[in-house]
Amino acid sequence: MTMRERANLDPNQPPTIERAWARACLAWPMTGRSCWQALLVVGVLAGCGGKHAGTTPSGGATGEGGTEAHQNTDMVPPEKMDEVNRILDRKRSVMSRCLAMAVDNKELPKNSAGKITIEIVIAPSGKADSVNVVRSTLESKTLQDCVIGHVKEIQFPELPKPYETSYTYGFEAM
Q: Which of 129, 153, 133, 128 is nearest to 144 (CA)?
C-alpha cells in the first residue's frame, strides 16, 4: 500500500495513527522510508513521557499526590548528599594547609603525598557529631587532628536524620 493510499483510507472510519502519520509524511519533503523513520522516533519519544495508569504512586489516605521519596522524611534526600560532598570538596585548599603544618612540624618529609579517608556522622542540625580517620597513607597526628578539626567546624545543611558518610582527601606536598 502506498503512502497516498494509507492517507486516504475510508474517511468514514475513525482516525488512526497510521493515517495521521501517512498524511504527515505526504506533507513533508522526504522519502517515504525516512519520513516513517522520523515519525517513529517522534512517536517513541512522545510515548516515553507523561503519566500512565498504575505507574504513579497514589497520595495515600490524605489524597495528596507526590512521590514516596518526598513524603518519607526519614530519608536523606540525594540533593542534600550532593551538597555535603560539594562542601567537603570546597574545603580541599583548607585541608592542604594541614599537610603544610605536618611538614613544618617535621612529622612528614617535604615530598609527602597520600590520602586520608574520614568517616563523618552529620547531625540533623548540620554539625558533624563524629569525625574519625578510617584510613590514612600519611602517618601524622598533626595532619589527622587538623583535618578532623576543620571538618568539625563545617556547617552542613540541615538533614531529616543523622547522615553517615565518608570522604577522602588527597595530599601532595610541593
A: 133
Q: Are 79 and 166 in contact (CB under 8 A)?
A: no
Of the candidates 105, 107, 118, which has an alpha carbon nearest to the alpha carbon of residue 170? Answer: 118
- Does the pTM surpass 0.90? The reply is no
Q: Where would I find the H helices in 63-171?
A: 68-71, 78-90, 92-104, 141-153
Question: What is the Cα–Cα distance from 142 to 140, expressed in whole angstroms?
Answer: 5
CB neighbours of residue 47 within 10 Å: 9
Contacts of 170 (CB under 8 A, 6+ apart): 114, 115
Tell which residue, 163, 69, 95, 81, has the closest CA to residue 125: 163
Neighbouring-strand partners of residue 117: 135, 168
> For 89-127, how does the pLDDT look when each residue is reduced to its tens digit (9 = 90+)?
999 999 999 999 999 999 999 999 999 999 999 999 999
> Which residues partner with 38 through β-bridges?
none
